[in-house]
Design a protein that fits this description.
The protein is α/β, with parallel strands linked by helices and about 525 residues long. Helix content is about 50%, strand content about 10%. It has helices at about 10-20, 30-60, 70, 175-185, 190-200, 205-230, 245-250, 285-295, 325-335, 340-365, 370-380, 380-395, 405-415, 415-420, 435-450, 455-475, 480-490, 490-495, 505-520, and strands at about 150, 155-160, 235-245, 265-270, 275-280, 305-310, 320-325. The strands form two sheets. It has a five-stranded mixed beta sheet with strand order 5-4-3-6-7, with helices on both faces.
């Protein structure tokens, strides 16, 4: 805009009168130009504000997806019918269920057939299966009533001994594992769980729950340090962050503090052993926490591929990476202004959709990274080059105002074009940061339910459990069994934590069992 001009109402009235009578004076052109620019500027601000409000309303009340078929207003009324049997699971889905084998009550293998009286019976596989699910309190309590006998003469009391399987601890390893899973895996606050337990006649106060969780963390924390080291060796690292609250940090009165914001960073690493999830909560941004992880990277390793959005705070200082930016973030800017510029936005969204169709075909065919790169270069490369020419033409031909909401969406794509198209240059480069955003939903779930962490140490414990639990989820490992096993073998964890990672603990337990059997 031009320089600021102060105009009074009577001056505007006089200007309108001169325009009506075609008696313009010197200086009227500059005044009219300023008014026109002001109207254009206010219109731009109004459109941007409307887009922000629409985005917020869509997040709260609208579709929870940005899929192509729902981002276009013409397709919003269409709804896909649910498949039959939606939500039902077969018996094989209950991998953690207790298995009870039931033999036939009157027949066995080798008997004569009672139907034809000629054939012989033999075992049929798989067996018939039925599933029965029972309810109960999350934490069950057993009261052992030990009989006491008193001598009527000397008063000596004799108490029955508890069974050998009772154990010495009031809360067993499974209790600690389930508490961690409920709070950090499912977002259940301790006070809510405490009220539920009390209502069912088996009280478990929040303070007691926290003492159990803290005790478990003290037994297994070396595994968290080791899993960070393992994640640092990954080929592809995704990172992002979300806001969090830590009451002790919020109450700090140090005015010299450079940063008051508190964040939870999510880092997902694709390694040879599978995907690893990491969480870090504190003042640091995602890039600073990624730098902390990369300090553990072996020097012989090549530069990792890093996927994040275009915020500068996501970059790791002091470490080089092959930077990729999220294509979905670039697409989202066009989804937000779809109602105002349907034709232009639809063109971009359709092009991006074709890129994802190609990537889906790559996954279906099971192509390796080199083959995937070649496929995208052949099929997606021409599409992206055509899209870039189209975006450039919008500005060069002055079809789009750069400061408009559509112009800003186009500028985002053009400013980050090399990073957005890295999948056309580097084998294994991902298209988007969706995996990390899905990971951060775990932290957001905790924030929505528990609202905050009380201290930095409690935030550390939360990061520890979330990292272990969600790494297990990513690798289809039972986190309850894993956390239970870690507590039972705490001494081994401190000696060699690498043997007790989610993908190695079962082999370690099997070796220990074999060694024990050999010694016997």
């Amino acid at each position: 805009m031009s320089k600021t001009m102060d105009i009074k109402q009577d001056e505007l009235d006089a200007l309108l009168e001169r325009v009506r009578s075609n008696e313009l004076q010197d200086g009227d052109y500059e005044l009219i130009k300023a008014l026109v620019e002001t109207v254009a500027y206010l219109n731009t601000l109004s459109n941007e504000k409307a887009a922000s409000i629409k985005r917020l309303l869509k997040m709260v009340f609208g579709d929870k997806t940005e899929k192509k078929k729902k981002s276009n207003p013409q397709n919003r009324s269409k709804r896909k019918k649910k498949k039959k049997g939606h939500g039902k699971n077969g018996a094989n889905a209950y991998k953690g269920a207790k298995k009870i084998k039931i033999c036939h009550q009157s027949l066995k293998s080798g008997n004569d057939c009672p139907a034809c009286e000629k054939g012989k019976l033999y075992g049929e596989k798989p067996p018939a299966k039925i599933v029965r699910i029972t309810g109960g309190a999350p934490f069950q309590a057993t009261v052992y009533e030990l009989q006491r006998l008193r001598c009527n003469l000397c008063g000596q009391i004799f108490t029955a001994q508890a069974p050998d399987n009772v154990g010495k601890e009031k809360y067993d390893a499974k209790s600690g594992a389930m508490l961690a899973l409920l709070k950090y895996g499912s977002g259940v606050p301790l006070y809510r769980l405490g009220k539920l337990q009390a209502s069912l006649g088996m009280p478990l106060p929040p303070s007691t729950q926290w003492e159990i969780i803290k005790s478990v963390a003290d037994k297994i924390h070396p595994v968290y340090t080791e899993i960070v080291r393992q994640a640092a060796q990954g080929k592809v690292l995704y990172n992002d962050d979300t806001t969090m609250k830590i009451l002790s940090l919020m109450k700090e009165t140090d005015k010299a503090a450079k940063r008051k914001g508190i964040f939870t960073s999510g880092i997902l690493s694709e390694c040879d052993v599978g995907k690893i999830a990491l969480f870090f909560t504190g003042h640091n941004h995602a890039g600073e926490n990624l730098s902390r992880v990369l300090q553990e990277r072996e020097s012989r390793k090549n530069r990792p591929i890093q996927m994040c959005d275009a915020l500068s705070r996501n970059l790791p200082k002091g470490f080089e990476s092959i930077l990729c930016n999220c294509l979905v973030h670039g697409r989202r800017n066009f989804v937000d202004v779809m109602d105002d510029f349907p034709e232009e936005c639809d063109h971009v969204i359709n092009t991006v959709a074709k890129i994802y169709e190609h990537d889906h075909k790559v996954k279906e065919q099971g192509l390796d990274d080199a083959q995937r790169l070649q496929y995208h270069q052949t099929h997606s490369g021409p599409l992206m080059r055509t899209l870039k020419v189209w975006l450039d033409d919008k500005f060069e031909n002055k079809e789009v105002e750069p400061n408009s909401s559509l112009g800003k969406a186009i500028s985002y794509m053009l400013n980050h074009w090399p990073e957005l198209t890295r999948f056309l240059e580097v084998p294994g480069a991902p298209l988007d940061n969706n995996l990390c955003e899905q990971l951060l939903k775990k932290s957001i779930l905790h924030r929505k339910n528990s609202l905050f962490y009380k201290t930095g140490h409690r935030a550390y414990i939360g990061d520890l459990f979330m990292s272990l639990i969600h790494t297990c989820n990513l690798q289809n490992i039972n986190p309850f069994e894993y956390l239970t096993a870690l507590q039972k073998h705490s001494s081994g964890i401190f000696q060699n934590p690498a043997d007790w990672l989610p993908w190695s603990f079962e082999n370690t337990i099997a070796k220990k069992s074999e060694e024990t059997a050999d010694n016997l």
